[in-house]
Amino acid sequence: MLGDIPLNYIRLEKNTGRAHAGNVGIENAKGDYIGFLDDDDEYYPEHLFVLVSFLKETGHKVAYGAVEFAHKALDGDGRSTISEVKWIFGRDFSYGDLVIVNYIPLMSLVFDVDILKRLRFDESFELYEDWDLLIMASERTDFYFVNQITAVYNQWSSSQIAFQSPPEVIRQATLKIYEKHLAKMSPEIIFRVREERAEKDRSIAEVNELILEKEKVIQLRDARITEIEARENSLESKVAELDAEVVRYQALANAVFSSKSWKLTAPLRRLRRVIGSLFNKRRFVIGLASLRVATAKTYWFYRKSGLKATIRRIKAELYFGVYHSKSLGSSLYSPELLDIVDVQPVSGGNPGRIAVHAHVYYPDLTKELASYLKNIPFIFDLFVSVSSDEARDICYQEFSKLPHVSRVIVDIVENRGRDIAPMVCHFGVQLAKYDYFCHIHTKKSLYSQVSMAGWREYLFRQLLGSEDQVRRIFTLFLINPDAGIVYPQNYEHLPYWGNTWLSNRVLGYQICRQMGIKDVPEGYFDYPAGSMFWARSKAIQDLFSVGIKLTDFPVEAHQTDGSLAHCVERLLVLIARNAGYKPFILRDPLCPSWSKWRLDRYMERTCDYVKKVTLEASNIKVVAFDIFDTLLIRPVIHPETTKTIIEHRLQESGGSGFAGLRANAEGLARTRLGRDVALEDIYCEFASLTGKQLSEVEYLRSLEEHIELKLVAARPDGIELFNHAIRSGKRVILVSDMFLPRAVVERMLTENGIEGYQALFLSSDIGVRKDTGELYRLLLERENISPSELLMVGDNEHSDVQIPLDLGIQVCHVLRPVEIARGLYRFERVLEWVQTEGSLDEQLVLGLVVTRLFQSVFYERFDPDILIPGGPEHIGYAVVGPVVLSFCLWLMEQAKTDGIEKLYFLAREGQLLKEVYDRVARHVEDTIPSEYLVVSRRTVTVAMIESFDDICRIARDSDYFPNELKAFIGYRYGVTLDDDDVKELCRKGLWQTGKSVEVRGDISHLMPVLKELAEKIFAGSRAERPGLTAYLNSIGLNDVTSAAVVDVGYSGTIQGMLSRLLKKPIHGYYMLTSAKSREICQRHDVFAQGYYGSQLIVGDFNVSPLWRRSFELETFLSSNDPQVICYDLCNDGQLKAIHQEPFLEEQGSLDLRNNIRLGVSSFIDDFFAIQRNIYPDLKLPSHLPEMLFGEFVERMSISERGTISGLALDDHYCGRGIVRLVS
Q: Cα(387)–Cα(955) distance, rounded to whole angstroms?
């Protein structure tokens, strides 16, 4: 029954009590660990493995797991048992609690035998002897809780001695414990127990509140499930009915189709289809709506460009429109957008106090607004702002009829600040008193010269479209305490570039500073475009108290942007986030898009489309190109990075505050001169502002020019558009708002192959800027063209898109690399952390990555689920390169500090590590020499076998997945078994036919086989050791006084074996080390340092993602070379390496790994170019590489998995054979 488990049965002649029996057990125990199990309790199969593994890995002496407390009773016939889990015990250890309460079941613990050999049960106790033992043991060592259920404590009314004992006996036993141990309760311990008890009471209260909230959520989900199941049953019934109908009609159709009359009337049917398509109601309505928009756009294009250009445009749109529809393959899923239909409508009455603010500038829309407000199923107060007496009367009369409105307040408010000013300044104080409020208005926008009536209807429908819609929105608020504001995704016809500051940046930054908002966005960001939303009042109440007055808003004069109202609209989400809340954005159900900002509209463009439709348009005479971020790109994620670099470079010489002074100097120079300024003007003002010497100021100016010059590189797609415009015969000019001198800009252009332009307009040179519109007016005058004859190609949404469009100029927008990255939900998380919390080093490194990945202007099939676009070379650049380089930079410094003379990189992952280390060494003085040590676990462990314990250690130290015995013995020990050998082992009863080998720490089932094969294993070890020794001597490992090995990690097995073989300490540097490495360090008096994590425990995932996904890490770093098995010292003294035969499954990895390494090399070259030319102190902290690696491997998209699907790793040593990274 027990199989291989040894059982020592000891019979006591008389019952001397539980304490005596326990002591006898302790005295006769032969193992390394001791546990106690009553006959009516249960261990789960993994109980001993889990706790013993924990003790071995950590070196601790006592551990206990979680326990199910179950009530058991006999059923009615007295034969079967009924079991019911009442509760689960499991919490961290507290000595104070233990002295007061016997709260840890003895059977849940496992003790190191050394602890109990020095302790005994107190045999004077007839009850609570276990409690007494635990108190004594806890005074000698720490107890550790492993949060995994491993045992069951059964409570039988007839079997528990404590429950059988009378209350007085229990009382006396408890007092005896207190008499023996209470003296140990110092005032500090008593106070700590009191504090712990208070904290637990608070935690219980919080948990109870959480349970109530979760119960509400469960009720909502149960109701939703019931609804879905009912709908599913109904649909299944309908499907069955329709299936029957299909069969019947199919038979009828077959009869008709085969008839002569059907064949004779074919021409009439063709004509009918044409007529029918015209009068299909649904298609007709959709087509009419599209036609209305298209007609409006066409009309305005005709007004600007003429008839011939319009006809060419229509032809191109028809052709490329079809092309686009075929090329789209993007996912429409994004976790940043919420499908409201997936949310269960909240039931019941009011979820809190609710208000609605409606700004009714157009009273003719009052009935429409009321038709939506009646869908609010809760009692609410309605606040209405109007601009006339007539509007007030209309609104009051109409809104008073609403079924759930409690009171209606209609006030006349001066026509300032659109809908925003009345909400903030007039009703803000009142709205702040409610739990929730909705803000809506009667929007009639003219945006981009096309009527946007559908925009208002879309926003109304998303926020108030039905009673269910409103209830679903309130479910969001109720189940998400951090939900601050809920609003719809951008309307489909709203330009994507509107999700930036546009003309509102200066005022927006000013209000953010005033409100204490530190994380101010620079590019694209979230806000409710159209300013309609539901909000939790607490989330934006700071807006109502910031001190904005009605008179701060300009009188309405049809402003389309740049007013305080447009600025506040963009602040709503920022304010909510600053208060600790987050936005929920409702996906557009009718026009879905993966991008909350509708960036898919940009990504749909192709290079051919832009060339043919835009650049080659006959009405365009001049094409103007912006320079920076359009033709030239800089590897930065912040536009002011250059100034930050200079400030860091000046810190040792007291240059703190340079960036702020430099910005002030630019503003003062512009104000003093009354025009845009050049770098020379700025530094003249800087000298006056700071009082610095002329020579020092000149150094700073030249340093800034040097950094800007070295930062820029060509943007290939942008230059291709530039060259195509030249080839098409257009006049091509360059236009830029830039402070750099003309000579510096011209040098940048020349060095990056940008030649052939006919004119260069620099704001620093001519004194006017694009972002004011003045430069465009000057350009049009000098070029003698009308606005419709100019095409502007640029990246800045304000100065290159909004301003020229307002002037009637054609535009072609080019997204900056950092904004493409920001538009991807996976990359946005990394970008946001680096911009808000990252160091200058991390900003520069991420700038390199973003520029490399997203420098393209056009994307043929853009996948929004990706983190890394492109092929394996980009994975090497953005994922593997940073991980390896950060490690090698640390390694180089740490090895110097530790006095290491030579580093030995272990095969196979060490090959890439050494290549990177050697590349780093080219840029660093006084580096430690390195060597590639081509050995494996198999090479050193077999050659080092000296005893049967060594044989067992090889079998036990690494897990082995289920596989044949032949494979296990061959790969672990180098002994070849054929089928006959296995049959003989089975015949002797040492193994079972067909049985697989599996090792998870326990090797008892392998012991008979290992003993049988021990002599063969010893012989193989003796044969291999001379070759290994000769190889180690040949690479000088035995000659170095202080050497260290370098590898990925984890337990330091090879390091320990080499230390033992060479009889001297061999140290180790690793990316990661496991807790097992501690034993190697102690045994050989060495260190084993882990960079991304040290002495980590298996199963602990609250650590580096490199530890959580170590298999992927090894696969990326592994070599294409076959694994070395052993070294053969031939008779002639020649040394020969014996390698594992290559496997066919590995062939697909060769090109992938080579391309990954190309990317790694490119990243390292770019990193040191920045360090050499721009920022000499550049470093690479570990956190950013970990973030990039974790985001990539833990959330790979389908296309990314396809990119690396050929990568595989040889894991025969652990029984898995060739393992593909993506199966």
A: 85
Contact 131, 102 (CB under 8 A): yes
DSSP 342: G
Helices and strands in the chain, H and E counts? 50, 34
Residue 875 CB neighbours (<10 A): 25
For 986, other C-beta atoms within 10 Å of its C-beta total 15
Confidence of residue 70 (pLDDT cuts 50, 70, 90): confident
Residue 556: the pLDDT is 80
Other CB atoms within a 10 A radius of the CB of residue 160 amount to 14
The distance from CA 365 to its chain's CA centroid, rounded to whole angstroms, is: 45
The amino acid sitting at 435 is D
Per-residue pLDDT reduced to its tens digit, 603-652: 999 999 999 988 999 999 999 999 999 999 999 999 889 999 999 998 87
Torsions phi, psi for 804 (to 5 deg): -65, -35
Instruction: Put the strands of the sheet holding 1043-1047 in their side by side order.
Output: 930-933, 902-906, 1043-1047, 1066-1074, 1088-1096
Residues 6+ apart with CB under 8 A from 667: none
List Cα–Cα distances, 2 to 6, 34, 53, 540, in angstroms. Answer: 8, 18, 21, 67
State the Cα–Cα distance between residues 322 and 251, nearest whole angstrom. 38
Does residue 554 have a pLDDT over 80?
yes
E strands, 614-657, in order: 622-625, 632-633
371, two tokens: 């038709």
DSSP label at residue 1097? P
User: Looking at per-residue confidence, does 261 or 178 come out higher?
Assistant: 178
Side-chain half-sphere of 749: how many Cα atoms within 13 Å?
A: 23
Distance CA(564)–CA(348), nearest Å, equals 40
Q: What global pTM score does this model have? A: 0.74
Half-sphere exposure (Cβ direction) of 191: Cα atoms closer than 13 Å: 3
Q: For 214, what's the count of Cα atoms within 13 Å in the CB-facing half-sphere? A: 6
Instruction: Quote the mean pLDDT of the chain.
Output: 87
For residues 73-101, give the mean pLDDT.
Answer: 70
What mean pLDDT do residues 1134-1148 have? 85
- The whole-angstrom distance between residue 1045's C-alpha and the CA centroid of its chain comes to 33
Of 496, 602, 591, residue with least CA distance to 290 = 591
**Per-residue model confidence (pLDDT) at position 958:** 86
Distance CA 602, CA 891 (A): 44
How far is 637 from 834, CA to CA, in rounded Å?
9
Lowest mean pLDDT among 70-84, 183-197, 673-687, 1007-1021: 70-84
Distance CA 304, CA 307 (A): 9
C-alpha–C-alpha distance, residues 1052 and 925, integer Å: 29
Neighbours of 255 (CB within 10 A): 10
C-alpha span between 431 and 436 (Å, rounded): 8
Cα 449 off chain centre by: 40
What is the greatest pairwise CA distance in the chain?
118
Write the CA distances from 507 to 97, 302, 497, integer angstroms: 59, 37, 19
Residue type, 924: V
pLDDT of residue 821 exceeding 70: yes
The predicted model gives 821-833 an average pLDDT of: 94
Beta-sheet pairing, 62-74 with 337-338:
unpaired
**Calpha distance 1080→772 (Å, rounded):** 69
Q: Is the dihedral of CA 478, 482, 485, 491 positive or negative?
A: negative
**608 within 8 A of 696, measured Cβ to Cβ:** no
Contact call for residues 648 and 1174 (beta carbons, < 8 A): no
888 and 913 Cβ atoms separated by less than 8 Å: yes
Residue 755, helix vs strand vs coil: coil
SS3 call for 643: helix
C-alpha–C-alpha distance, residues 729 and 714, integer Å:
23
Average pLDDT over residues 1180-1186: 97
